[in-house]
Structures are given as C-alpha cells and as structure tokens.
C-alpha cells in the first residue's frame, strides 16, 4: 500500500499546484465571464471530449497492460510505434471530421455558429490530446512520476498564461480558454513524444500487438462512452430544460466538487492503475487492495467535506456574486464524486481479470439511470435534481461493481462503512449551508465542527486507524526516491 501512495504523493503535486493556482484565477475569470460563458465552455468541452474519447479508442488501460506484459524492450518499442501511428491517423481524421460538423453542432448546442477560427482552435487541441494519450500512458507505465509532474506543471503554466492573457487582457471570452489549452497541449505533445521515443527507441510497428490492444480495449471504449453519458448527460439536460446560464452555475459547483478527484483520487488512481495488476499477482493482494481502498475513501471523504465547507465559504467571498448560488450544490456533487472514487477502485476486479465486458454492461445500466433520473429530476428540482441524478447513477455503479466484481476477485472492502461515510459527507455540509452565519469566525467554527464530526465518524466506522497517521512521515520520506 505504501508504494501506491508514495507514487500517488508525487502524482498529486502537479494537480495540487494546478488547482491551487487555478482556483486563484477562477474568481478573477468570473468577473470577465458570465454564467452563460461558463455554460458555453462546458458544452464545447463536452463536444470535444466525446470526439476525443472515440478517437482515442480508450487504449490507455490496455496499453499499460500490454506494456507491462511485453517480453522485452524491443516489443515495447514496437508497441509504442504502432500505437502512435494508430492514434495519429485517428487524430487527423477526427480533426477533419470535427471541422465538417462544427457549424451544425455549435448551432444546436449554443444557438449560434462560433466561427472558423474558434473551431480551428478546438480541432487542434482535440488532435493533440488524442495523440498524447499514448505518451502519457507510456510514462505512467514506467512510473516516471517525477517527470510526469514536471511536464504537467509546464503544460499548466503555459496554458494558464495564454488563457489569462486572452480572457483578462484581450477579453476574448470563452475562446481564450480553449486557445490556452490547445497551445499547451501541442507543446506537451512534442516534449512527451521526444522523451518516450528516447527511452524506448524506434522500432517497426507491431500491428499484431496493436490489433490485440484494440480487441482488449473495445469493451472498455463502450464502458468509457457509458461513463461519458454518466458524466455529461446531466449537463446537456440542464442546458436543454433550464438554460446555458444555469449550466454555468452547475459547472461552477462541479469546479469545486471536482477538486476532490483532482487533489486526492486522480493521483492515487494514476499509481493504482499499475499497482492493481501487481497486487492481483500477490498472495495477499486482496487484503492490500482493501486496505488501500479504506484509506483512499477516508481521504476522499475528508477532502469532500473540507471543500464543501471551508472551500465554499472562502470561494463565495471572492467570486462574482452571480456565481454564489452554486456553492449550495457542492456537497451533493461531492457525494457523487466519493462514490465515483469508490467504484473506480472496486472495478479493479474487471480489469485485472480481463472481464471488461461485464464492466461495460454495468456502465450501460449506470448511463441509463443517469439519463432517466436527470430527465425526471431536473424539470422537477432544477440544478439540485441534476445533483441527485448524479448520486443515483454513481450509487448504482458502486453497488453493481461491489456485487458483480466480487465474483472475479474477492476483496474484503468495507462497503457499509464507506456508504455511511458518503451519506455523512453530504449531510453535514448540506446542513452547514442551510444555516447562514454572519462573519468569518462563525462560519469557520461551523465548518470546523462539520469537519471534526466527520473525522470522528470515520474513526468510529473503522475507515481511519491509528496506524494510518504513522504512515504519513514514511510516505514523504520515500516518495521522491521511489518516484524518480
């Protein structure tokens, strides 16, 4: 477990820096962009994300599996060359297709045509992100965590600089966000490609290995598409039944709730994506994964409560007042995020045993739940209905992964304690937001009380143990040597 978290600690440095600086910029951006602008950014991000998902074929997990199982360095070099060629072709074709459909697509989503310059920025960023998938997966499989952090920070700094210049100085509007991201993606693509080929060398592409990779990943792509529906159906339905401006408020709530994933779970998952395969081969691997799960869920819950209380109070004092109502939805979305972190680990059983089609089937049910619940609840309860629909879909996925996954790999997860902690992580901050307290001191005391109660509950549930605190200094002591 310590190896997972020591690498995760390094992987988390870049997201921590990015989110820290990004959160400083968001209140500034809210004074230059309207809630409608944020809604536009989200809808176009959703559109390019769908293209990127399909074009990337969801090869990452399968690629890392093939890389780890490759018999020698020449086989890995051939795998890298073949996968790079495949994604380059997909990216080029996808860029052309996107430019063809962009006018009717933007008119449908936004009610107006965004223009060819705007569309070109989106297409270039899309193509760069698709090809980058293979190089990021290579560095991840090599556990080059320090290098990944460095590259991630450089990419973020470049993107932030261009975005801030466009949005704040040029007052470019939403296109400035995409221009900064596209510039950073192109530069990072060039750097990561050089690093990966310098390490692996160049070899003739192994198209047979690439074919097997596609066969392994096809069910995962279907599951990823289902996840896309789970992740984005609520946004589309909010924009249709409410307005693009309401979507902007919903997106702002997700900006804070998403910090739970970025700061805590994503770095751990980046490390665990490799380590779970190794744990599956260990005699005590199931117990190791269960212990890892326990700590991850405790950390994720604590982060969710902290962000839903202290984070929201601080943010509300900095942003444009038009965005303040979004803070009330953060606790509900944080509950959905915790469930997502949980089922992402529990679903390891499907990945390590190759039973990816089962996970695809389960995601189909989750996607269906998300769509139906959103269609019913958004017209009835507005933005809160979208939050409840997200919780319902993620709860279904968690329960399904727990019940079905146990047939493939029996891991002694603490499911009851986890679900109880999720309920508290939603209830305590939601109760806190229902009470308006004047002054910083009163708000800080209420936030501290909610967080303290949650930590005490984690101890009672057994998700936090005394031995966990002793592990923290060892993680910091071993992180840099292990990640270098």
Which short descriptors sum up this protein?
disordered C terminus; globular; 484 residues; mainly alpha; 2 domains
Gist of the model:
This protein is mainly α and 484 residues long. It has helices at 2-11, 13-29, 35-56, 60-69, 73-110, 116-141, 145-169, 175-200, 207-241, 244-281, 285-316, 330-346, 348-352, 356-381, 383-405, 415-433, 439-461, 466-483. Mean pLDDT is 85; it is low at 4-12 and 472-484.
Report on this model:
This protein is mainly α. The protein has two domains: 15-31 and 219-484, no CATH class; 33-205, no CATH class. 85% of the residues lie in helices and 0% in strands. It is built from 18 helices and no strands. It has helices at 2-11, 13-29, 35-56, 60-69, 73-110, 116-141, 145-169, 175-200, 207-241, 244-281, 285-316, 330-346, 348-352, 356-381, 383-405, 415-433, 439-461, 466-483. It is globular.
How many strands, what sense, and barrel or not for the largest sheet? none
Beta fraction = under 5%
Integer-rounded radius of gyration = 22 Å
Shape assignment: globular
**Unreliable stretches, pLDDT < 50, 5 or more residues?**
4-12, 472-484
Helices and strands, with pairings:
Layout: H1 2-11, H2 13-29, H3 35-56, H4 60-69, H5 73-110, H6 116-141, H7 145-169, H8 175-200, H9 207-241, H10 244-281, H11 285-316, H12 330-346, H13 348-352, H14 356-381, H15 383-405, H16 415-433, H17 439-461, H18 466-483
Helix pairs in contact: 1-7, 1-10, 1-18, 2-7, 2-10, 3-5, 3-6, 3-9, 3-10, 4-6, 4-9, 5-6, 5-9, 6-8, 7-8, 9-10, 9-14, 9-15, 10-11, 10-12, 11-12, 11-16, 11-17, 12-15, 12-16, 14-15, 16-17
């Amino acid at each position: 477990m310590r190896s997972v978290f020591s690498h995760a600690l390094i992987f988390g440095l870049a997201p921590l820096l990015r989110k820290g600086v990004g959160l400083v910029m968001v209140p500034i951006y809210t004074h230059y962009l309207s809630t409608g602008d944020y809604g536009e950014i989200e809808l176009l991000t959703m559109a390019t994300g769908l293209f990127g998902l399909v074009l990337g074929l969801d090869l990452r997990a399968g690629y890392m599996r093939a890389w780890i199982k490759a018999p020698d360095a020449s086989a890995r070099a051939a795998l890298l060359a073949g996968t790079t060629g495949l994604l380059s072709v997909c990216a080029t074709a996808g860029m052309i297709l996107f430019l063809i459909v962009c006018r009717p697509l933007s008119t449908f989503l936004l009610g107006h045509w965004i223009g060819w310059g705007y569309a070109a920025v989106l297409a270039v960023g899309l193509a760069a992100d698709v090809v980058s998938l293979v190089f990021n997966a290579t560095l991840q499989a090599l556990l080059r965590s320090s290098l990944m952090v460095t590259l991630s920070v450089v990419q973020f700094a470049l993107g932030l600089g261009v975005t801030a210049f466009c949005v704040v100085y040029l007052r470019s509007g939403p296109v400035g966000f995409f221009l900064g991201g596209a510039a950073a993606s192109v530069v990072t693509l060039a750097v990561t490609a050089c690093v990966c080929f310098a390490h692996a060398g160049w070899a003739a592409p192994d198209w047979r290995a690439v074919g097997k990779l596609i066969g392994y990943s096809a069910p995962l792509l279907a599951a990823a598409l289902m996840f896309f529906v789970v992740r984005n159906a609520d946004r589309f339905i909010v924009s249709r039944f409410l307005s693009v401006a309401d979507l902007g408020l919903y997106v702002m709530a997700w900006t804070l709730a998403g910090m739970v994933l970025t700061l805590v779970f994503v770095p751990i998952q980046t490390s665990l994506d490799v380590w779970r395969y190794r744990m599956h081969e260990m005699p005590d691997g199931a117990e190791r994964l269960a212990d890892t799960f326990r700590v991850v869920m405790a950390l994720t819950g604590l982060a969710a409560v902290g962000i839903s209380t202290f984070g929201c109070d601080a943010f509300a004092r900095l942003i444009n007042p038009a965005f303040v109502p979004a803070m009330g939805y953060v606790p509900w979305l944080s509950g959905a995020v915790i469930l997502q972190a949980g089922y992402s680990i529990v679903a390891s059983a499907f990945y390590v045993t190759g039973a990816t089609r089962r996970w695809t089937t389960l995601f189909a049910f989750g996607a269906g739940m998300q769509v139906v619940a959103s269609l019913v609840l958004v017209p009835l309860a507005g933005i809160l209905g979208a939050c409840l629909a997200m919780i319902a879909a993620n709860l279904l996925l968690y329960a399904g992964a727990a019940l079905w996954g146990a047939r493939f790999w029996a891991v002694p997860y603490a499911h009851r304690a986890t679900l109880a902690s999720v309920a508290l992580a939603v209830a305590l901050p939601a109760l806190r937001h229902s009470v308006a307290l004047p002054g910083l001191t009163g708000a800080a005391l209420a936030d501290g009380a909610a967080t303290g109660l949650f930590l005490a509950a984690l101890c009672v549930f057994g998700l936090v143990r005394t031995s966990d605190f002793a592990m923290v200094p060892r993680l910091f002591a071993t992180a840099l040597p292990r990640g270098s």
